[in-house]
Write a structure and sequence with these properties.
The structure is a single chain. With about 220 residues, the chain is mainly alpha-helical. The chain has a domain of about 140 residues: Tetracycline Repressor, domain 2. The chain is about 70% helix and about 0% strand. The chain has eleven helices and no strands. It is globular, with a radius of gyration of 21 Å. The termini are far apart.
Length: about 220
């Protein structure tokens, strides 16, 4: 597809995603984006109003379909369970498996997500996190039904750990071969997803450690 085959709006989003991945969001100027897209500053103002609007469009183009697929699979799991709580395995799979496929399909956006950890402008990171607030409510409700004995605070922490494990896995899957000195190798997205799901389910089910008392003797 040549630049003329795409709309100006799409070319701007494509260019921004690539440059954000290569340089970071803060370090990328609108002139960088328009030069890459073969457009002008007026077109950014027309379609997005500002750089913040362009950043939001880059996020939404990728994250909205990912979240829709997660919710579709979660809906299927809940319908299959009928009046019972959905299985923990199905909940975790609905969250993890689309993410692994997404990573393989959109490597530039995954680099954008990785760079957000180091962006000096925290607003860009906050806007990214906001994309997941609604889906977080659905997963909280599903996990509370599947794991009624785990306190909600612990469920949030365990989801936080799962997300961290996913980001590391996305970014460093091939490191397994290096660390194991060639004994083990990355064997494809499906195998990686299965291993990550097994790991996450075990962690979600783990008993809650008793908190140590911090009070002194009376």
């Amino acid at each position: 597809m040549t630049p003329d085959d795409k709309s100006t709006r799409d070319r701007l989003i494509d260019a921004a995603e690539l440059l954000f991945a290569d340089q970071g969001i803060e370090a990328t100027s609108l002139r960088d984006v328009t030069a890459k897209a073969g457009a002008n500053i007026a077109s950014v103002n027309y379609y997005f109003q500002s750089k913040d609007g362009l950043v939001q469009a880059v996020y939404e183009r990728r994250i909205a379909p990912l979240n829709e697929e997660r919710l579709r699979l979660l809906d299927l799991a809940e319908r299959a369970a009928a009046d019972r709580p959905p299985s923990l395995e199905a909940i975790v799979e609905s969250f993890v498996e689309p993410s692994i496929r997404f990573c393989a399909s959109h490597p530039n956006f995954m680099r954008v997500a990785g760079r957000l950890q180091f962006e000096p402008n925290l607003e860009f990171r906050s806007r990214f996190i906001m994309q997941f607030q609604e889906i977080a409510k659905r997963y909280e409700a599903a996990l509370r039904r599947a794991l009624p004995d785990i306190p909600v605070e612990d469920l949030f922490w365990r989801m936080h750990f799962l997300i961290g494990a996913m980001i590391h896995t996305w970014s460093n899957a091939c490191d397994v071969e290096l660390v194991s000195r060639g004994k083990y190798r990355f064997s494809g997205d499906a195998d990686m997803a299965k291993r990550l799901i097994d790991f996450a389910v075990a962690g979600m089910r783990a008993p809650v450690a008793k908190k140590k008392s911090t009070g002194g003797k009376g």
